[in-house]
TrEMBL record:
Family classification: Belongs to the C/M/P thioester hydrolase family.
GO biological process terms, semicolon-separated: acyl-CoA metabolic process; fatty acid metabolic process
Superkingdom: Eukaryota
Domain Acyl-CoA thioester hydrolase/bile acid-CoA amino acid N-acetyltransferase: 47-179
Gene3D superfamilies: Acyl-CoA thioester hydrolase/BAAT N-terminal domain, alpha/beta hydrolase
PANTHER family on file: ACYL-COENZYME A THIOESTERASE-RELATED (PTHR10824), DYNEIN AXONEMAL LIGHT CHAIN 1 (PTHR10824:SF39)
Keyword Lipid metabolism: yes
Protein name: Acyl-coenzyme A thioesterase 1
Alphabetized UniProt keyword annotations: Fatty acid metabolism, Lipid metabolism
Annotated organism of origin: Acipenser ruthenus
GO molecular function: fatty acyl-CoA hydrolase activity
Location of the BAAT/Acyl-CoA thioester hydrolase C-terminal domain: 242-449
Keyword Lipid metabolism appears in the UniProt entry: yes
Amino acid sequence: MSFLIKLAARSFQRVCNVKLLAAVRLYSTAGQSGVSIKAGPRTALADEALKIRVSGLSPLQEVTVRAVVISDDDSMFDSSAQYRADRQGELDLTREPSLGGAFTGVEAMGLLWSLLPVPMEVPWRRLFKKDVLKGPQFVDLLVHRDLSERGRIPGPVLAKTRVERWFAGQGVTRTQLSEGRVRGSLFLPAGAGPFPGVIDMYGDEGGLTEYRASLLASRGFAALALPYLGREHLPESLSDLDFGYFEQAASFLLHHPKVRSLGLGAVGTGKGAELALAMVTFLPQVVAAVSISGCHANTGGELRYRDRVLPGLSYKASLARMLDSGVLDLSETLADPCDPRHRASLIPIEEAEGHFLFVVGEDDRKWKSEVYAAAAVQKLSEGGRHNYRVLSYPGAGHRIDPPSSPFAQAVLDQTLGVPVMEGGQPSAHAHAQAHAWGQIQEFLHSNLGGSCV
């Protein structure tokens, strides 16, 4: 019975979304003559900057500019900000500050990185593209009369436009892998190649995440989005991970005819970052690692590779804190990797011949990635290694994704069933994403050969 109730509630929610969209389109007939909104480029990759301009307003007229996106699963996300036109009745979001709403100040891409589920949707969800080749992500941009707060019915629509945000460039191909034990999606740029090869991994939430790999392919990399948990023929828990799986994935990619034979890069976030560090340490095929909000020790289950065994750092559930907001704070639950008692869990990165890029948010509240990066750098330095670089961003949280990826300070954990704190301040996090993305590509190109696209 509870299932039927939930199904009925979900159906009702969808009907509400359809009605709301219809209302938005109906409002557009009540517009102010001569007002227009232009956004460009109208068709672009999702990591490209967008310029939004409004014209035809009255001098100093106050309006609300809003973005609306329908996700792959038909959920609605929106954002809005309040503006005042200049004395010519024009509004340029690259120059004019937001007076209120989802953000304040000059934030040209603010309407995209501040997208959140609308109040009628399930909260604490992050918007991302699940099927990157299933068309673009459509973003509807609307100008509403007067200033309105999020969650309230906005004023009449004065103008609207739509832009397309693509997660794969023209000619990028995807191959679903079942090569031996290896699973995932291989994205290849257009052309004959060979291209620098990169393995891309996310956290221990499991499943397949493609959007970073597809964007890397759009920028000239042969990128393998590599799942390692919670997918067909893959383990369900970290305790069952076999590092040989990652060795096989690296061997497959390096021997692909469209991949350069100079060595691979590994990019990871969270647990994926930790695995990237292990790959550049243990696998000769991997010569560069990007650790985004990672730990320099093995966490969760035991890591075995040939004659090496790294015990997994454990989590202490009793140190979890439920905040007044109903969000779970897990930042203190991981055992301290810097404690001498846990030395055996440390990844011996000082043995690596490759290069490291550590990307950390100084306000990461999922775990202490800034502390871990500092300890990793100290470990490398003490071993006489200078093959690293650190990008440390004040105000950034845990999940530093490609530019304009919607920010979420807390995200619903599918296993725990409650939102988990990831930290960060919206604007600072967004600017960190924009800067880090270019630096990551430069690092990979400089160590794998080739030039930035």
